[in-house]
């Protein structure tokens, strides 16, 4: 089983510098009527976060909402979408957020193919929109222990069940791969039908346990 998550987008180049990547995005917006490169907002955004960044207006279509796409430097020659901000409504659903990004990446890839310059070497990547427990907890042993915890009576708060969770936390603390606790909480609620209180208690205990174990190693 899987849960719906926000997609992530990365735009990078092996040859161009940061300004070169931004110039490609500016050219893309000029050639594509559906997008507008917001120069003033981009400058303010870049100054605010103290790195290369830009702000692009993605106009409303029959399939997507009007939204601002904020891209910021992740590392040299690589930008990522930091946020998608609605222009005509208070917030976007996960589906609406992802639809904007899917369209943006598809249109950007078409533009890159259109200009056809090998020396540009721009790549636009987008992640999947679903994730399961095997991806949330990617390390084998912690995953096995968490499934063992789930397979008993995790919401009973019985000492034996809490101990199973603590054993998982100890195993997780020894792994380099991190677990997104936000995704884990969503998984418990959306996929396993836990209530918010139980799911929050579980992830808070995991977070606290990891912090204590980390402090103990110092």
What attributes characterize this protein structure?
6-stranded antiparallel sheet, TATA-Binding Protein
Task: Kindly describe this structure.
This protein has 218 residues and is an alpha+beta fold. Helices cover 50% and strands 20% of the residues. It contains eight helices and eight strands, in the order E-E-H-E-H-E-E-E-H-E-E-H-H-H-H-H. It has a six-stranded antiparallel sheet with strand order 3-4-5-6-2-7. The protein has a two-stranded antiparallel sheet with strand order 1-8. Helix 5 packs antiparallel against helix 6, helix 6 crosses helix 8 (196-217) and helix 7 runs antiparallel to helix 8 (196-217). The radius of gyration is 21 Å and the shape is elongated. The mean pLDDT is 94.
Strand runs, count: 8
Report the structural category: alpha+beta
Secondary-structure element sequence?
Answer: EEHEHEEEHEEHHHHH
Give the low-confidence spans: none
User: Nearest-angstrom radius of gyration?
Assistant: 21 Å
Helix content: 40-55%
Report strand order across the widest sheet.
3-4-5-6-2-7
Beta-strand percent range? 15-25%
Instruction: Predict the CATH topology of the largest domain.
Output: TATA-Binding Protein
CATH architecture of the largest domain: 2-Layer Sandwich
Distance between the termini: 38 Å
Kindly provide the name of the CATH class of the largest domain: Alpha Beta
What is the overall shape?
elongated
Q: Return the average pLDDT rounded to an integer.
A: 94
Question: Major sheet, described briefly?
Answer: 6 strands, antiparallel
How many structural domains are formed by the residues? 2
């Amino acid at each position: 089983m899987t849960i719906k998550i926000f997609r992530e987008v990365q735009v990078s180049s092996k040859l161009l510098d940061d300004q070169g990547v931004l110039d490609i995005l500016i050219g893309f917006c000029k050639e594509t009527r559906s997008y507008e490169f917001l120069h003033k907002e981009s400058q303010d955004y870049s100054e605010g976060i103290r790195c290369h960044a830009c702000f692009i207006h993605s106009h409303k279509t029959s399939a997507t909402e009007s939204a601002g796409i904020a891209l910021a430097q992740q590392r040299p020659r690589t930008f990522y979408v930091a946020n998608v901000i609605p222009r005509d409504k208070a917030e976007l659903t996960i589906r609406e957020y992802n639809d904007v990004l899917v369209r943006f990446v598809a249109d950007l890839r078409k533009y890159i193919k259109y200009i056809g310059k090998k020396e540009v070497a721009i790549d636009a990547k987008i992640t999947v929109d679903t994730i399961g427990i095997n991806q949330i907890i990617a390390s084998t042993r912690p995953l096995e222990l968490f499934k063992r915890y789930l397979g008993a009576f995790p919401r009973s708060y019985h000492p034996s069940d809490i101990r199973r969770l603590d054993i998982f936390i100890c195993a997780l603390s020894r792994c380099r791969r991190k677990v997104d606790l936000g995704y884990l909480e969503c998984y418990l609620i959306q996929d396993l039908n836990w209530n918010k209180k139980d799911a929050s208690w579980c992830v808070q205990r995991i977070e606290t346990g990891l912090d204590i174990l980390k402090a103990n190693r110092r």
